[in-house]
Amino acid sequence: MQMWVYVVRRLLLLIPVVLGVMTITFILVSGIPSNQRCLSQFGPPPIHGGEQAISAYYAHCYKVLGLNVPVYQQWAVYMGNTLDFHWGNVGNFTAAAAVQPFITGQPVTTVLGWLLPYTIELALLSLAIILIVAIPLGRLAAVYRNRPVDQASRVMSFSGFAIPSFLLGSLALIGAVLVLYNLNLASACNGPFNALHGSWPAAGCMPGSVASNNNYPPWLVGGIHSTPTGFPTIDAAIHGQWIIAGDTILRIIIPALIIAYGTIAVLLRFVRNSMLEVMNLDFIRTARAKGVTEHVVTKRHAGRNSLNVTITVLGLTFAFFIGGFPIIEEVFGLNGVGRALALSVLQPYDFGLIFGTTILFTLIVVIANIIVDVVYAYLDPRVRLG
Amino acid sequence: MSAEISAETAGGAPATPEVRRGRRPNPRIAQMKRTWYFLRRNTLAMVGLGVIIFLVFVAIYAATQPYPWTSMTPYCVYTPGSPNTFCEGQPNSICVYAQGTVAPAPNCYVTPTAYPSFVAPTFSLVPFHTGPLPLGSFVDASVGVSGSYFYNLYQGILRGSDWSLTFSFSIVGLGASIGLIVGAISGYFGGVVDEALMRFVDIMLSIPQLLFVLIVIAVVSQLAIFGDSLSTRITFLILGFVVVFWPLYARIVRGQVLVTREQKYVEAAKASGANSGRIIRKHIIPNSVYPVFVQMSLDVGSIPLTIGALIFLGFTAIFPTVSFPEWGTLSALSVNPSVLTNLLTSYELNLPVFVPWWMMLFPGIMLFMFAISVNFISDGLRDALDPRLRR
Amino acid sequence: MSSAVRINSETDTLPASAPDTSPVSGGPLASAPASEAPAHRDVVLDVRDLKTYFFTYDGVVKALDGVSFKVRRGETLGLVGETGCGKSVTAFSITRLIPDPPGRVMSGKILYRGANLLWNLEREATFKPIRNTGRVKIRRRFRQIRAAMDRMSAVRGGGVSTIFQEPTSAMNPIFSISDQIGEALLLHRGMEIVDALLNAKPDDPAVAAAIDHALEVSRHGTNSEVRAAALAIGTAVGVPSLGVQAYYILREAGPSAPESKPEILHALRRLKFSGLQRAYLRRERRIAELRKRANEVYLTEMRTGSPQRMARVNLSRQRTTANLRTLYLSLWGIRRHVRRTVQNELYWRTVATLEGVGIGNPVQVARGYPHELSGGMLQRVMIAMALSSEPDILLADEPTTALDVTIQAQILELMRDLKSRVGTAIVLITHDLAVIAEVADRVCVMYAGHIVETAPVAELYHRPLHPYTQGLLASIPRLDQPDKELTSIPGSVPNLITPPTGCRFHPRCPHAMPVCKTEHPPTTVEGSGHTVACYLYTGPVAVE
Which of A33, A170, A203 is the closest to B222 by Cβ? Predict the structure, then answer.
């Protein structure tokens, strides 16, 4: 069938999945008792004023949050709001708001819009590293099976799998801090460099702490939101501040390496196994029998065929990414959506952010899967038959 | 050379079953023997297996220690001048002076035989102590991290073996069983049942795992109907993980069952009048189980990591007051964000910095050993069970 | 032990190499037919005492234990045997396509054009039998193995090409048919193709005349006349595939054929190259030429057994330079144009090749993918691919087993036709005696890793000597003897891990003698071209 027909079909399948995810999130969150939700939105109930004040507080809270209607109606309202991109506001008394005061009370969609570019920058850098390392290494490991290259890649992939990313990140951070400070290479919290990406090193330069310095450049608002594009590196470049742009990239290199290490661990095995599978197929033998040299057989005949599985796995590793981001961003203090998620599950919970980040992450995963399927269909003409 | 080989192998033991006397061996047992032979030849897998067995013994040893782990007797570091209400008047606590001398402080007792439990951390932004903490005797001294919580590292790691193994194997075992059943039913019956179940599985797999576990446990633990004891919290933890882990197995099994149900022996069984339940039990499931084993061995290693990640994110819903010394937990607590913040702030303020690297490293090393040995075994299993590798 | 007469080993002569330029009409598969009498032709392939073992978990499978035969130029040799007797293994051992972890060619000599394809065998691996288990520990020297495979790529395709049993899985699913056949063409006839492009004369007045003539003929001529006229355009230009393209343009146009001059001129325009494009074409030619020279060096190494290191290093340096120059010092637009032109050329040559194997709609097939074609068509495509490089020998590994009988008949007809037209030697491996009777000139009968009898076809069917052959022929049901009981050879094929000692057929042989258990019988000559390995024919033998 045509390519576009295939694409449309896949997009149509997206809808039930997204609706299902939203429903599941709704079910889970409505299991949380409502006093929790009131707490995070409006703060603790009033101490003075006795029974009347407390009941007034709860009445007001239920009215605003829409909790005084039956569950199925809440569900309908929730679905309507979500599809309308009214995902609520960030609470005023939540842990997330406490750490990043700039986002207090703002609509969740806006806040996510501010935070997403940081995560995207990190993701792109990690992706570049992964592609450059994992695919050639995996192919080499398959071609030279059980030889030193294969054993080394096996060790690398296992160790990447076995080390918790928070530990690796923290140790890397501590190590970097010790090294750089002792070599006097990192300036602490002075100067404009610390303004972007939250802070580096992590959280040492939080607003309000002794050594922080809130002189953000004018195009960076509140330490989070940059104009005009929202991507701090690009904006710094647009405004001509090349040093800041370079510094931005330096800040995300170590986190990107750590994320890449964990993901390469998984991807390497898959690339190797899929390549091995392909090398045992019949048409490789035919290509050799035609007189094609081994190098070309590996690169052209086997490579393009094994790319299918690799791309599928690449799409799946988005899920891995998204799971890893909260941790890495928390460790390195980057202002991305992962950190927002991590902060939103500290007591008191921030339900707007929990909802928002869940749906956002799910959307990303689903769209990534669709892109993967489309690319797969482009590469392999057999898939287009249906 | 080839003549030599011919002579050698002609005189060797005949390997094929037809030539042996007696009953032909059960092909399933023969397959298992063959798998074991290949596993044995794989050094890494054997190392992994050895490590896991060692850890099991450690867990058994730790369980035999006389240790009332539910008690809350803390170790305290008594800093002169700071209000340390934790320690005052606490029986069975050892108090240690910050400068390294161990001496009984007022109202503190020294009880060398009562090993204290692991205390739940309460996060605070108190700066680090100046100077290192004394190590004392390895077994009963405390090695602390910050002013908030302490535990005996050695005991923690010993008992952590128990907890980590229990969590990993029980979660994966339950998840795999549920996934196996669901996947087999879905794959075998096909049609509407298959479509519905697979849509459900797809939805559940779309939500990123960490996120999902987080939300499920947060929600479930809010329901106070089951009481608030440690065992309920452990149950919630395990159930939360199982809910998140089973869809992957269901999908794997379904894929395999789609292939298995087209085999001739299934057709033959149907023709002999077996009902669906019997076919699923006796034919489909035993032949679809192999990719599940591989995936199981992968997941076992990742569970302590995920628990650690949850705790690292500050997710204290599981551990409000009582905790357990699981490795993931220990390593997460040693590098939790507030600790890192303190560390870096101290650098900022040019204060002397105290990095208790042993607290961070040793639970992490144990975790690493566990996860990597399980991964070695899983890789060995996959190579041994791969039908495409002609041996 | 016995004084049996062994086969005389004929001296190996270098046969005349295959023609370099293909004649114009009908494409590359219409070379001059071979015409000499069978028995005195040159030997193209000489396999001597080939041993191939497979080292598995259950033991060492001695798949081939000393196989020897010769293939002469232009003849069709049938290799017959039951499943598991080692026929496919023989074919793969010749081109060294045996998958190396379990399998290994142990010893022997395979002489192709005087070059020993197993020239470095002893140095490739060492073996150590493990006591009491029947398994063997092998240490492979990967550098030697890789060097051997590099040398083999000089022989495969151009010298010895193979077609396989399952055509549906033997083609790469993501490349179109023209890509795959084009790859083979480019590898082996690259120089000639680029030469034709370089020497194209699109502005020659003869071309315009030929075009006009063709359009004239298309008005009211028969199909073959139109075809001849269209091909004449190609000859005039000097690029034969243009003629094919012109023919299909005319055919597509149908009744409005005489008005299709613009299309033909458009096709002609792609043959006009600027100076820069010519330079690129010359670079491509240089790369093809270097590849050919490297192949010749490899052949020399295999022939003499001495590494031609200096020549190799020199050539590899030149090739690297040429490749890098093409890669980095080229303008992308021009390079793309040149590549497109070459690909177009390959496409139309593919179409011509597909015509040669009898495919009715070659234009659509060439553009399509393997999964769109049926098994019979794919087998034709495979044959086209194998023969497009004009090899000396074609190894056909059970080409018709996976196809149904009617298609089988068509493929065999095609192979007979190609045999008379092209003159390639064919080694036809099959278990079907009827196929052998149709196509082969000589037959080798294999059993359990040995060749038990070799004979010209008619001789074998009239006078089978080896008890196995006799059993095979006797088990064929005969229509003219309806009351005859069906006979079969008692017993079953032996396990090749623990084969029977001596003659491997002795457990099932009705004429087994005590001496048959001791040692494998020598091969004796029993008539012109008829050899057999059986103690029944070796004369009196002292039994120890």
Answer: A33
Q: Which residues contact C212 (CB under 8 A, 6 or more apart)?
A: none
Reported as a single tens digit per residue, the pLDDT across A32-71 is 777 777 777 777 777 777 788 888 888 888 887 777 788 7
> How far apart, in whole angstroms, are the C-alpha atoms of residue C230 and residue C253?
14
Residue of B nearest to C54 (CA): B391
- Cβ contacts of residue B7 below 8 Å, gap of 6+? none
Which of B1, B10, B390 lies nearest to residue C498, judging by beta carbons?
A: B10
Residue in A282, A290, A381 nearest the CB of C187: A290
* C56 φ, ψ (degrees, to nearest 5): -120, 175
- Least Cα distance to C453 among C393, C521, C358 occurs for C521
Structural element, H or E, at residue B77: strand B76-78
Residues 6 or more apart in contact with residue C91 via CB below 8 angstroms: C79, C162, C395, C397, C427, C429
Over its C-alpha atoms, chain A yields an Rg (Å, rounded) of 25
Distance between CA B135 and CA B152 in Å, rounded?
10
Q: Please name the amino acid found at residue A191.
A: G
Q: For C385, which of A147, A285, A290 is closest by C-beta distance? A: A290
User: In terms of DSSP bridges, do strands C115-116 and A225-226 run parallel, antiparallel, or are they unpaired?
Assistant: unpaired
State the DSSP H helix or E strand holding residue A294, giving kind and residue range, or none if neither: helix A294-296
Residue A177 forms contact with B (CB below 8 Å): yes
Neighbours, chain B (3 or more CB pairs < 8 A): A, C
The chain B residue lying nearest C108, using CA atoms, is B2
Question: ∠C529-C531-C537 over CA atoms, to 5°?
Answer: 135
Q: What is the pLDDT of residue A216?
A: 64
Inter-chain CB proximity B344 and A341 less than 8 Å: no
| Per-residue confidence (pLDDT) for residue C134, from 0 to 100 | 66
Q: What is the DSSP track for C70-132?
A: EEETT-EEEEE--TTSSHHHHHHHHHT-S-TTTEEEEEEEEEETTEETTTTGGGTEEEEEPTT
Give Dmax (Cα) for chain C. Answer: 88
- Flag whether residue A294 sits within 8 Å of chain C, measured between CB atoms: yes
Q: C513-517: long-range contacts at Cβ-Cβ below 8 A with a sequence spacing of 24 or more? A: C514/C543, C515/C541, C515/C543
Chain A / chain C CB contacts < 8 angstroms? 77
Q: How far apart are CA A38 and CA A61, in angstroms?
A: 6
- The token pair that represents C494 in the structure block: 């032996």
Please write the tens of the pLDDT for every residue from B131-166.
233 333 333 333 433 333 455 566 677 778 888 888
Mapped onto helix, strand or coil, the DSSP state of residue C62 is strand
Least Cα separation, residue C217 to chain B (angstroms): 59
CB contact under 8 A, A188 and B355: no
For the stretch C236-259, pLDDT in tens is 888 888 888 888 888 887 777 777
Q: How far apart are CA B64 and CA B68, in angstroms?
A: 11
Which residues in chain A (45-104) have CB-CB distances under 8 A to chain B?
none
Q: Which of A135-149, A322-336, B147-161 has the highest mean pLDDT?
A: A135-149
B222: pLDDT strictly greater than 90: no
Report which of A314, A313, A315, A309 is spatially closest to residue A365, judged by C-alpha positions: A315
What is the DSSP secondary-structure string of B269-337? Answer: HHHTT--HHHHIIIIIHHHH-HHHHHHHHHHHHHHHHHHHHHHHTT-TTS-SS-----HHHHHHHHT-H
What mean pLDDT comes out for the span A148-165? 86
Using DSSP's 3-state secondary structure scheme, residue A94 falls into coil
Yes or no, beta carbons of B13 and C101 under 8 Å apart: no
Residue B19 pLDDT: 44
Which B residues in the span 37-66 are in contact with C, Cβ-Cβ below 8 Å? 37
Residue B160, SS3 per DSSP: helix
**Residue burial A314-344, b: 16+ Cβ < 10 Å; e: rest:** bbbbbbbbbbbbbbbbbbbbbbbbbbbbbbb
